[in-house]
Amino acid sequence: MGSSDDLVEHAPWLRGLGLPVVVDHLGGTDPGRGLQQPGFLLLLEFLRQDNWWIMLSNGDRRSVSGPPWDDMTPIAQRLFAAAPDRCLWAGNWPPGLSGKKNLPSAADLLELLYRYLPQAVQRRKVLVDNPARLYSN
User: Fold this and answer.
1) In the predicted model, is pLDDT for residue 100 greater than 70?
2) Contacts of residue 27, Cβ cutoff 8 Å, sequence gap at least 6
3) pLDDT of amino acid 8
4) How far is Cα 124 from Cα 137, in angstroms, rounded to an integer?
5) Residues 20, 137: contact at Cβ < 8 Å?
6) What pLDDT sits at residue 49?
7) Which domains are seen in the chain, by residue range?
8) Cα–Cα distance for residue pair 124/58, rounded to 1 Å
C-alpha cells in the first residue's frame, strides 16, 4: 500500500468487496498527518466490517520520526482498538529488497510490537489467534 489516500481514491469499489480483505502496512497511514486524515478514517470505517483485516507491521518504514518509530504507536493502537480480532503482524521477506541500508533488527521490530500492544493477550490475538482464524478459512 502506498498511502492511505489510495483507499479514498478507490473507496467506491472497495466498499462493495465481500471477500476477506487484508490491508498491509498499517493502511499506508502517514503519522505526520495525524489520526484525522481521510484515508485513516476510511480505514477505520472499513474495519467495522467483518471481512476487513489490517496488518500492524512495517511501522518502521512508515515512520517519519525514525527509530524507535514511536510516531506509529497511536496509529497501531487505534487500529487494534477498531478491530482487535482482525489485526495481524508480518514482516517483509527478504528484508533487503527494500533497498534500505541499516535495516532494523528483528528484536527492534518485536519491541515496537510490544509498544503497540503492551498486554500479552493483545499480542496473542495478533500473532496466534487472528492469523489462525484467517488462514483456516
Assistant:
1) no
2) 1, 4, 7, 39, 40, 43, 54, 79
3) 84
4) 19
5) yes
6) 95
7) 4-136 (3.20.20.140)
8) 19
Residues 6+ away with beta carbon under 8 Å from 78:
35, 44
Are residues 59 and 112 in contact, defined by beta-carbon separation less than 8 angstroms?
yes
Claim: this prediction has a pTM higher than 0.85: yes
CA distances (Å), origin 89, targets 9, 70, 136: 25, 17, 16
123 burial (CB, 10 Å; 0-12 / 13-18 / 19+) is middle
Q: How far apart are CA 20 and CA 41, in angstroms?
A: 20
Residue with cell 480480532: 85
* Distance, CA of 79 to CA of 45 (rounded, Å): 11
Enumerate the β-bridge partners of residue 54: 23, 87
Count of CB atoms within 10 A of residue 105's CB? Answer: 8
